[in-house]
Fold:
Amino acid sequence: MTQRAKHISRIAALLLLMAVCAGSAWGQTTYHTETYDFDGDGVNETYNVVYLKLKNGNDSKAGDSQENAVKTWAKAYEKLPAYTGTTEADRNYAWDHNIIVVCNHTEIINIQDANTGNRPATITGTWPWTADNTTYAKVITGGGVVVDNGNSSTARLGADTKFKYIRFNGTTAKVGYLCLYLHDAMFDVGCIMEDFVDLSTANGATSGRKAPDMEVFMYANTYDFDQNKTDGGWLAQTKPVTLTIKSGKFGRILTSRITGTTDAYCKQRYVIANPDHPLMAIVNIDIDQATTTGAWNPKNYADDIAFLCSGMTQGIEYCDVQFNIKRAKIATFVGAMQGMSIAQTANVGLSNSSFFGRTETNLIPENDDDVVIQRYFAACLGRSQNGQNGMVDAAFYGQSTLNMYGGKIMSGAYVSAGGISGLQSPDGNYHTTDQYIPYLDNTTAYSKYPYMGIRYQPYDAGKTIAKVTTTLRGVTETIDLAETVTQMNIYGGVINGGLYGGSYGYSTEMEVAKTIAGAGSLWGETNVNIYGGHIYGGVYGGGEGSSNYYNLATAANRENFATVATVYGNTNVNIYGGAIEGGIFGGGKGLETQTAGNRITISTTNGTNPVNTDVTTVANEFVDIAKVYGNTNVTIEPKTLKPFNEWADPNVPEFDGADDDWEFTGNIYGGGALGAVEGNTNVVIKGGIINGNVFGAGKGEDGHPNKAKVTGNTNVTIDNAN
Structure:
């Protein structure tokens, strides 16, 4: 035998050995492939295809046809090539070309049992796909996937997964929870929510809107907190989890979920992630509304998502989340924490509902009608659970940003409703009422999970609050929780209500007995920047007050709600353009004086459904509601923006020169609308046409001089230098 022949023989032997090893590990060395030209470019692509029947399949068969379908998820994934990719491009190719076909309309397969061996794949209910859009609805004759009911066996993914042309069903109770378990997921075209009960309004998330009880979480504590995982219970991420939604109907989408509300659960499973390893997530939503009617929407749900939230159901979460929303109908959007009351007989030293980190929302539609949000809150929503007697902490610390390039918000836009935000005012004179601030403490009592070097306690100026370290955008960044920053940047779109740098002092989802003092208060600066768009209401640097909690509270507890919607810090309102139908205020929107004996009707909740309550009011001027303890700054500086095109990575657009023709018909106030200011007010006009009055102070009420009082100086500057 020649040297060349010997060399070839050695290579052949090595290849055979590799094949044998692969076969012993996964049971096969070849895979069933099919070729199709789905994109119509005249080139066939090759797909690894496995057919799956849970009831009538047979794992001894090849899985190469419906007749030869395998029976289990494990066998189906075993018949796909092992994944060795390292890049996003590798992953995209893998899940685009590895196909698991769920067979038979009458069969529903529980994804809970899937053990993927880290093989990215597409799960579909019909195959092959067709390029004819009119026949896509035939997916309802294909297979379906059931998601679990949220107990310890909650359905979870074991690898990056794409769903395409497939039905989703609930369990026997017609309730479905799906945990991504930090794997990327895409609900591609043709996902149909077919057999779910309506999401109960008892959890306060949907405001009575019809929605399927189909809920998606990027992480759930059920799987790790009883185990010795990285960082004492938290499965720390190496990259952000990305959820992409192109079709389907959802009750709730949250980054994470806590199971249970008993003391035992609180003590064992109450903290998601930690300051050094926050939960990082990117949510991309682009739902073609042409595929949300008829056969695509058999239950005729009005919204694509009833409740979209950056945080979780309850507990403490260290988090960094970015939303990019291009097309969607959303009932309620909450940028940070959903809020929850927990029935706990013992104080376990942990918050019921606190969000530490960053949340960013980018509304980026091509047309305003493409994104419709009924209610928007940039941070927290106070929510109490019927039957649970704990208080609702609903606190936010960190950074919250709204970049609105288009779309519609059908009510006002606020930082929170009922929740609180921030640690302290910039001058250090005021601090949060929250009892669970995350201070660094590595003593033995706080060194292990769930504390992990953090002690949650009331405000202490002598201690150092935690900082969150994140790599969501590919570089290491530090979020200082001691300096909470909120920004509303409006570049386009429509807001059918007021725009508030602060919060609303009331949540319809929260009972007064479970509400902490100073609901809707913010300790820190607010920033409202309007570059374009149309706002059918006033613009306020502060929050909007409410008398609901005050009137419903017991006499002994009323004073806790005499300061709702307060901002303890400076407010900044910058107007560069856009159409504004109401007034412009540096401060907040307060309340008219109530005289004793008036009967008013308040819409509130009674655990399950909204109800109306008649209340006899007491005499009150409400001079401290929606108050600003700091300076207010209003700047009118008309400018034209260069076009902004790169929606996937929104940055502040560059200015392209002054627009002195910008016109505003209304009044401008340095102070508030019945909201007082404990500080100075500053109004600077640098251009434009103002068809109204400019006031350094606020808008008051006859006979009540303290309602919009400015304690400091009022300053108005007209500067046309630009």
Summary: The radius of gyration is 28 Å. The longest strand covers residues 315-334. The chain has five helices and 51 strands. The longest helix spans residues 3-26.
